[in-house]
TrEMBL record:
PANTHER family: GLYOXALASE FAMILY PROTEIN, EXPRESSED. SUPFAM superfamilies: Glyoxalase/Bleomycin resistance protein/Dihydroxybiphenyl dioxygenase (SSF54593). It comes from Beta vulgaris subsp. vulgaris. Coiled coil: none annotated. PROSITE patterns: VOC. Residues 8-139 form the VOC domain. CDD domains: VOC_like. This is VOC domain-containing protein.
Length: 144
């Protein structure tokens, strides 16, 4: 038996040189809402929530960090989602998959779509403005 009990995912944090830009993306594309964020003084944070309980914490990148920029913190949008590394993404599900994909395309977001052999699982892969991989899928809904 695991030591922790009643475990559930609380939040995911993303570091960004432009937390406002990243917050706007998640609000406009996936419907996150901004919630009250603590004030840390020396760096900016924006907390977002996807009801009912998932949170995304956007934290200003430390400009004096000795860590190099990673491919997941790009200065401009990554253009080729076919190269999204399979182990580095956040996944969401939607009930209006086809409409959502059209919305992404209307916004000029480069996407890579996939339908699994079962015909029920449809996925779209893309990047946020910092190059973080995103997957949105429709699991268990027959293809139309």
């Amino acid at each position: 038996m695991a030591a922790a009990q009643g475990v559930c995912l609380n939040h995911i944090a993303r570091e960004s040189a432009d937390v406002k830009r990243l917050a706007t993306f998640y609000q406009q594309i996936l419907g996150f809402e901004q919630i009250e964020s603590p004030k840390f003084g020396e760096f900016e944070v924006i907390w977002l929530r996807l009801p009912p309980s998932f949170s995304l914490h956007l934290i200003q990148r430390n400009p004096s960090s000795q860590l190099p920029e990673s491919p997941y913190s790009a200065a401009s949008p990554v253009q080729d989602p076919t190269n999204l590394p399979r182990g580095h993404h956040i996944s969401f599900s939607v009930s209006n998959f086809d409409e959502f994909v059209l919305f992404l395309k209307d916004k000029g977001i480069e996407t890579f779509e996939k339908t699994q052999p079962d015909g029920k699982t449809k996925q779209v892969f893309f990047f946020d403005p910092d190059g973080n991989g995103l997957e949105v899928g429709s699991w268990g809904t027959p293809s139309q």
